[in-house]
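Hi support team,

I'm filing this because I wasn't sure whether my run with S-adenosyl-L-homocysteine finished correctly. The job status page said complete, but I'd like someone to confirm that the output block is well-formed before I use it downstream. Pasting the exact inputs I used:
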Amino acid sequence: MKNIYSLSYAEALQFADERGFKPTQVTNIFRDIYKSDARSFDEMKSTKSELVNELRQEYYFHLPEIITITKTPDTVKYLFSLEDGCMVETVLMKQEYGNSVCISTQCGCNMGCAFCCSGRLKKQRDLTPGEMTGQIIALKDNTGEKISNITIMGIGEPFDNFDAVGVFLDIATNDNALEVGSSHITLSTCGIVPRIYDLADMPYTIGLAISLHAPNDELRSRLMPVNKKYPIADVIKAAKYYSEKKNRKVLIEYVMLKGVNDSAENAEELSRLLKGGRFSVNIIPYNPSSEDKFLRSEGQTIRAFYDILKKNGTAVTMRREFGSNVGAACGQLRSDRLKK
Ligand code: SAH
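And here is everything the job wrote out:
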């Protein structure tokens, strides 16, 4: 048995075809679930009942369950429990341009970045596509808000669970399902190079964000073990391929760690590294957790870093902070809960 929220359009077409139903019936399945908000087979009113009965044989409805909700003026952060009790975080961010949801792709993470709390607790398992879709549906059901943007930037490394993320993208972008345009979706990776090329060769023109966090291999390998396998030059080359293929800028994420990667020299080096590519740096203030060996850079250090990039003609923005004042940033809800 499979969760119905994992069902891609292509898979549904095949399912219907094998049982002698027309493709229009597949449109009905998706419209029932995603547009009319059916939450059980009995509520699927437009799909032929014979086809609904076929679906019952192989699929079931299941959504993540809410454990806690943490609110700030512009965010709502959910800690969800999945079917087997695994926990993930999902965040609704209210932006000027609409509502953005940040979803998790794995329970925990194996990338082991030194500063990240998601990685302190090893990966328990990958999420299914339905558990990614489910985070959005459960959140929509709870808030009643419309979702215009998706960021695949929560707990986990999406390129370490790429097949499931691919199915999720199908459901997310389909006009009869979540109907979020490719240009309104951003995926963030620690830099698993072969998957950057794979994504570039897929039809989705989603935004790509790369967690760089350091301008040279020596420093990056200390912060992010993945760099030993895929060093900076290879990551930048793949990112350039992506930006040319999709004709859009690649976002370079840079979390500011006090005294570690925030010097003027680091900023100069970052500008040199990104020269000639279509990149935009997003400077992120670090959210320290309790018992953390890293600290957030001072405001003036962040400002100076920003100014150097600007002066060098490197495109740069500063991330607005979401949720950090309530201990609800970047995997903290889950890791606090697991400690209890
Ligand atoms: N694995 C993916 C996506 C998940 S992490 C990736 O590495 O990009 C999402 C972003 O949050 C990454 O840029 C990550 O480096 C950053 N991050 C992790 N812990 C953080 C913290 N405590 N404060 C600020 N940013 C953090």
